[in-house]
Amino acid sequence: MNLKKLLAAFIASLLSTGVAATSDRPANLENWGHWQVVGEAQLSWLFFDIYRSELLAPSGTYSQSDDVTPHPVALRIRYQRDISREQLLEATLDQWQKMGVDRPTRSSWIAQLYDIFPSVAPGEQLIYVTDGESGQFYFQGGNDVLKQVGRVDDEALNDGFLSIWLGRNSQYPKLRAQLIGMNK
């Protein structure tokens, strides 16, 4: 698997909801930083560490169902390499294609994420927090300031993005198992 495919997987999971830039935050997601860790996973390719991810939930558990986001969760990704916004978007598109998402849907979703995804450097984080229907993207750059960079109001995109990591058809089943706490 090449770096391009790994990046696509990451982006795809982040982009499963319709997104619009905004600074609004639903009250029920305000305390996501205090949620419990469900699971953690490391994505590496050959000798290169790409990112470390963790899934958080209010109760510290993930309930599996046909719905990828049956309850509030937060997906935090800490990057270990420089990755451009274009690479993240391309990796996300690639993952959605492998998961069988049709071209018109992929195009619509990626257009919503275009202005949200930043380029990332080692140590920076992209966090997606969802109530199960909609969500917010946060970015924590080198200055350690956590900033909301976009909002997703499309439940299909919300689920599509998180399916990259949490869906039963994820291209990374071992990573999924670690994130949802199956390896505890």
TrEMBL record:
Endpoints of the signal sequence: 1-21
Keywords, in A-Z order: Isomerase, Signal
Pfam families, alphabetized: Chalcone_3
Top-level division of the source organism's lineage: Bacteria
InterPro entries assigned to the protein according to its UniProt record, in alphabetical order: Chalcone_isomerase, Chalcone_isomerase_sf
Positions of the Chalcone isomerase domain: 46-181
GO molecular function, one term: intramolecular lyase activity
Protein's recorded name: Chalcone isomerase-like
